[in-house]
Design a protein that fits this description.
CATH architecture: 4-Layer Sandwich
Protein name: Metallo-beta-lactamase domain-containing protein
Organism: Piromyces finnis
Number of strands: 14
Strand content: 25-35%
Domain Metallo-beta-lactamase: 74-262
Helix content: 10-25%
Shape: globular
Largest sheet: 7 strands, mixed
Oligomer: single chain
């Protein structure tokens, strides 16, 4: 049976990423999170210097699917501005290679600007990794991609002699499940701010009992019901204060308590207002979470979640 075997977080930060260059060059050196992001951190599992939890790239998640033939398929959620840098680190460290499909949450820069970098997988003659990469996205995101990367959608618009990504776009119905590499993926439409006086729709995704929502300020009731029953949920939490397009920490925790997940959940999409160790301590001491019997941790780049 096809099943989700592992989720790997390639990025857990906000659109600008962490550190912020202006924080690093501030003569008063006030931003604790950005300054700490420059220090080495020892991985608790094997003693190697593998990550610094305060260094965060754009939110992105790699779904590792166990296929019927026992092979592993890699389905990537989002290719943002830091996609290239993230794959250089985590694909090489974890010995990942192929990208069997990409699914996109929305058309913002931190979700799509790495599409051009996918060409590394589809060029190189006999040495290329694969012929093409399927892309799954909403019609609204397709419209943005067509405007931002016309040459990726229509290769006759490519100029010069440069190689381009070989991509095959598949527009999905955001209100219907779809299948990628034999596994069902359920779109989770959520509100990510307002555009032209209407909610701006961003997609999360549910695969088996895992739900991933990286950019969200409101979960509609119909989507809440689709998420309900997930054992592991990764949910947006930008900062302590409220924001017009992202959950705050408390808002995210309240949603998780109401969703009643059975296993450890994680916060993602954190800005530099949230320092990893401090927030981790606060979550461990949170009485509302204890009373609800729910464990929530702070995600970090490179985190592997087995299923």
């Amino acid at each position: 049976m096809v099943k989700l075997e592992e989720a790997v977080l390639l990025g857990t930060g906000t659109s600008g990423g962490i550190p912020n260059t202006c924080c690093l060059t501030d003569p008063e050196r006030k931003c604790k999170t950005c300054l700490l992001s420059q220090e080495f951190t020892v991985h608790e599992d094997d003693g190697k210097v593998w990550y610094n939890p305060n260094k965060r790239r754009n939110t992105s998640c790699l779904l590792r699917i166990r296929a019927d033939d026992n092979s592993i398929k890699n389905i990537l959620i989002d290719t943002g501005k830091t996609f290239y840098e993230g794959t250089m680190e985590w694909f090489s460290k974890y010995n990942f290679r192929r990208i069997d499909a990409v699914i996109l949450t929305h058309g913002h820069a931190d979700a799509i600007l790495g599409l051009d970098d996918l060409r590394q997988w589809t060029i190189g003659g006999e040495n290329k990794v694969q012929e093409y990469i399927p892309i799954y996205l909403s019609q609204e995101t397709m419209d943005v991609v067509s405007h931002s990367f016309p040459y990726l959608v229509n290769k006759t618009l490519a100029s010069g002699g440069g190689d381009i990504s070989q991509l095959r776009f598949n527009v999905i119905d955001i209100n219907q499940p779809f299948y990628v590499e034999g596994i069902e993926i359920i779109p989770l439409p959520v509100h990510h701010g307002v555009f032209k006086d209407q909610p701006f729709i961003c997609l999360g995704f549910r695969v088996d009992n895992f739900s991933y929502i990286s950019d969200c300020v409101k979960i509609p009731e119909t989507t809440f019901n689709l998420i309900k029953g997930s054992s592991v949920i990764i949910l947006d939490a930008l900062r302590y204060n409220s924001h017009k397009s992202h959950f705050s920490v408390d808002e995210s925790l309240n949603e998780l308590i109401n969703l009643e997940p059975s296993n450890t959940c994680y916060l993602t999409g954190m800005a530099h207002y949230l320092e990893h160790e401090q927030l981790s301590k606060e979550l461990a001491e949170n009485t509302k979470l204890k009373d609800a019997g729910i464990t929530v941790k702070v995600a970090y780049d490179g985190l592997r979640i087995p299923f």
